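Researcher: I'm preparing a figure for a lab meeting and need a structural model of a single chain. I don't have an experimental structure, so a prediction will have to do for now. The sequence is pasted below. Please return the structure as tokens so I can convert it later.
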Amino acid sequence: MKKNGIINSQIAAVVADMGHMDWLAVGDAGTPVPKTVKKIDLSVVLGKPEFIDVLDAVLSELAVQKIYLAEEIKLENAAMLEKIYERFSQDVEIDFISHAQLKQQLKESKAFVRTGEATPFANIILESGVVF
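Model: Understood. Here is the structure written out token by token.
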């Protein structure tokens, strides 16, 4: 048994397989996931697990150089946006795009991790960086 880090085998495998500039998405329970994208469904009930807890687990193992967020989060879920800001240093680029565009760009992700989050626009695309 793995001693620490991500113990979900599907998420651990995707993170281990990430290369520079690959995308991994994490989002709320209502996000439509393209059929061509691997969906790792962690949702149990509405609200569980929370988006931010899953994001923290992924960030504990994944080097991130850029993130994509829906522009709408600024007005519709400012509290979540603040939590997201707290997790990224100034060297991580943040690109705000429309929610419709974010949903389209999910097609480019290696996987989508579906949480039980039930707040609007709690979705993120993480672009992997390098550790050297």
